[in-house]
């Protein structure tokens, strides 16, 4: 075992020994101490959910086993302040260097910058690397040096870059271990007794760990990928790669996936690589728009009058909406922590368009229940479905769950698997039992409103309500714009402090007021007040241009980029949940099916985000 002067390799969401630039740099430098710091309280409302924590536990054990075969072991630390713990590890091991790989969510960017500042001040050399993306966000720009506002333009640029992504690195042959005698590991607790029974079922379907991810990739490339273009729309999850949890935790290198995929030139491969591109784009959006998980990128949608209804929300979570494909998806999610990407679109679109519940509630529930919960990807998906991206789905477009059912589950096999009460219903009626003759329902043992619910809301009624909401939205946007223009003419500036329709966020001891505004920022610490005020002052600028200077792009409050989408739309003050989550009083359900696994009550703090865009991102 080596003495002092070692390097620290800080693992986060890069839990692999293969194609790990930080680990490779540490090995080249000499003796290495590998460390993982568990500080979930720092994540605020996005405290990891049960199934995500189960995966992390298995993945860390797998990584530790791999490191031991190479000559070292993983030091695990429990913390509430990652940077302080890093400094303690450095001092206890006499380390002189720190290596880690980039992350792109706002909290990580700020934390990483602080780590560099603090450790550099202590004389520690700090270097960070790209291990999560094909290209760094700051490298993908147009000819004018501006960022891209649509996925199509972004992905076209990635595919036409003058240089290919770097080839994946091989695992090190051996690792010289640094001295950890004064740096013992902490025992990390990822589950309580009440969760162990449910978690045991996950091991039957999933095998976390980087070498298992490698095998899963090989299996997919040699099997489902061949028919991916034909089968990807089927609700059966066996038609997809099932790689997203491995990618989220960094068990699998996206560069390895890309380089393996580009060896083929078929339509299926191109479609699959496009899905990898969407993951890239989610990081790109998060980096350039750090509040994308909390507010819409198109500013007029901050005036949309979301329907705050606990009954609707609970019915959706429990798979009791009366629409079979939606209900089957939500029950699969609760039982397995997984959903086919097409079913994710169906259930989230129903949530936003039909129930008109605030999209951030749905995103937070996905975060709590998905194995592959990923803040950047989930924010992109929910923003897309909610029409809050320049190239997202129009908010006034409602896809009927019955039509979607016969498109993605034509024989009803998926519905029958997850809704056993409908198992005997003929395929003709499987996606719209409310239209089935009474004799058919009786023969199938179905009593609508009893053992299976009637539709929670009619689609025609939902369409009418949506049009009214859109009309209110545009009216309110026009009022706000006129008020700002009047203030500008009077030389009073565009401060949002006096902008209309900005009611108080909380009343009644911190519980959300139904008049909470969608674009009010979460609480900040004192050090961030000046930045927050600057953001608020710019928040009502009504002309959206995502290609603008990077320092201002995220803060614009926009008009739609498509004039055709404005016709028939107009708005009201927003009725939305607290920032970054849904209401605390939705946490404890008496019925455990779809009951929320949110940790808002135990961990109510929000992100403290400074203007990290001005911080150096490389080095």
UniProtKB/TrEMBL annotation:
The record marks 306, 359, 382 as: Electron transfer via tryptophanyl radical. One of its GO terms (biological process) is nucleobase-containing compound metabolic process. Belongs to the DNA photolyase class-1 family. One of its GO terms (cellular component) is nucleus. Coiled coil: none annotated. This is Photolyase/cryptochrome alpha/beta domain-containing protein. FAD binds at residues 228, 240-244, 272, 372-374. Residues 594-604 have a biased composition (Polar residues). InterPro entries: Crypto/Photolyase_FAD-like_sf (IPR036134), Crypto/Photolyase_N_sf (IPR036155), Cryptochr/Photolyase_FAD-bd (IPR005101), Cryptochrome/DNA_photolyase_1 (IPR002081), Cryptochrome_C (IPR020978), Cryptochrome_pln (IPR014134), DNA_photolyase_1_CS_C (IPR018394), DNA_photolyase_N (IPR006050). It comes from Erythroxylum novogranatense. Keywords: Chromophore, FAD, Flavoprotein. Residues 489-521, 552-605 are annotated as: Disordered. Its cofactor is FAD; (6R)-5,10-methylene-5,6,7,8-tetrahydrofolate. Binds 1 FAD per subunit. It holds the Pfam family FAD_binding_7. Gene3D superfamilies: 1.25.40.80, DNA Cyclobutane Dipyrimidine Photolyase, subunit A, domain 3 (1.10.579.10), HUPs (3.40.50.620). One of its GO terms (molecular function) is blue light photoreceptor activity. SUPFAM superfamilies: Cryptochrome/photolyase FAD-binding domain, Cryptochrome/photolyase, N-terminal domain.
């Amino acid at each position: 075992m080596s003495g002092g002067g070692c390097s620290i390799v800080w693992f986060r969401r890069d839990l692999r020994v293969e194609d790990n630039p930080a680990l490779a740099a540490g090995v080249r430098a000499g003796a290495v101490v590998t460390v993982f710091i568990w500080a979930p309280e720092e994540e605020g409302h996005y405290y990891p959910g049960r199934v995500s924590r189960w995966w992390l536990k298995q993945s860390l054990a797998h990584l530790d086993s791999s490191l031991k075969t190479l000559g070292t072991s993983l030091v695990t630390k429990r913390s509430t302040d990652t940077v302080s713990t890093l400094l303690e590890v450095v001092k206890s091991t006499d380390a002189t260097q720190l290596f880690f790989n980039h992350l792109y969510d706002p909290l990580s960017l700020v934390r990483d910058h602080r780590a560099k500042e603090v450790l550099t001040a202590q004389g520690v050399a700090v270097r960070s690397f790209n291990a999560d993306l094909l290209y760094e966000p700051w490298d993908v720009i147009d000819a004018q040096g501006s960022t891209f506002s649509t996925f199509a333009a972004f992905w076209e640029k990635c595919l036409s870059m003058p240089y290919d992504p770097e080839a994946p690195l091989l695992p090190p042959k051996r690792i010289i271990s640094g001295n950890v005698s004064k740096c013992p590991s902490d025992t990390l607790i990822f589950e309580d007794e009440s969760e162990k029974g449910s978690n045991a079922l996950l091991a039957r379907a999933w095998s976390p760990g980087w070498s298992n991810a490698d095998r899963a990739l090989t299996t997919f490339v040699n099997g489902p990928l061949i028919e991916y273009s034909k089968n990807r729309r089927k609700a059966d999850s066996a038609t997809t790669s099932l790689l997203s949890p491995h990618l989220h935790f960094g068990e699998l290198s996206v560069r390895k996936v890309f380089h393996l995929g580009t060896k083929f030139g078929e339509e299926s491969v191109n479609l699959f690589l496009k899905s990898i591109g969407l993951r890239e784009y989610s990081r790109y959006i998060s980096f350039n728009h750090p509040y994308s998980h909390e507010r819409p990128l198109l500013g007029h949608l901050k005036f949309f009058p979301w329907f705050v209804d606990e009954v609707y929300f609970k019915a959706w979570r429990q798979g009791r909406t009366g629409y079979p494909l939606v209900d089957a998806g939500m029950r699969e999610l609760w039982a397995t922590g997984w959903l086919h990407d097409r079913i994710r679109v169906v259930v989230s679109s129903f949530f936003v368009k039909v129930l008109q519940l605030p999209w951030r509630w749905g995103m937070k529930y996905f975060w709590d229940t998905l194995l592959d919960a990923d803040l950047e990807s989930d924010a992109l998906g929910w923003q897309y479905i909610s029409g809050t991206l320049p190239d997202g789905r129009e908010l006034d477009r409602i896809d009927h769950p019955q039509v979607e059912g016969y498109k993605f589950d034509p024989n009803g096999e998926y519905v029958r698997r997850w809704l056993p009460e409908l198992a005997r219903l003929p395929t003709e009626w499987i996606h719209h039992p409310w239209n089935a003759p009474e004799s058919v329902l009786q023969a199938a043992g179905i009593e609508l409103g009893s053992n299976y619910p009637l539709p929670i809301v009619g689609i025609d009624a939902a369409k009418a309500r949506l049009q009214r909401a859109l009309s209110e939205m545009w009216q309110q946007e026009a009022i706000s714009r006129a008020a700002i223009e009047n203030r500008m003419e009077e030389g009073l500036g565009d401060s949002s402090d006096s902008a209309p329709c900005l009611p108080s966020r909380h009343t009644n001891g911190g519980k959300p007021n139904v008049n909470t505004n969608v674009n009010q920022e979460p609480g900040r610490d004192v050090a961030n007040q000046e930045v927050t005020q600057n953001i608020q002052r710019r928040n009502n600028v009504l002309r959206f241009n995502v290609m603008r200077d990077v320092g201002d792009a995220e803060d614009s409050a926009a008009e739609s980029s498509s004039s055709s989408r404005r016709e028939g739309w107009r708005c009201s003050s927003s009725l939305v949940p607290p920032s970054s989550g849904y209401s605390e009083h939705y946490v404890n359900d008496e019925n455990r099916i779809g009951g929320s696994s949110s940790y808002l009550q135990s961990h109510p703090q929000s992100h403290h985000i400074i203007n990290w865009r001005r911080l150096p991102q490389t080095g």
